Amino acid sequence: MTHRKEFLTGVKAGLPVCIGFIPIAIAYAVSAIHSGLTPGQTVTMSLIVFAGASQMAAVNMLAAGAGAAAIILATFILNLRHLIMSTCVMKRLEKAPLFARMGLSPFVTDESFALFTSDDALPGSPYTFLGLVAATYIPWVLGTVLGCFMFSLLPPLVADSLGIALPALFIALLVPGVRKSLRLLAVVIFTAVLNTVLSAVMSGSWAVIISTLLGALAGVFIMDEKEEATV
Question: What is the pLDDT of residues 158-169, one digit of tens each?
Answer without folding.
Answer: 656 665 655 665
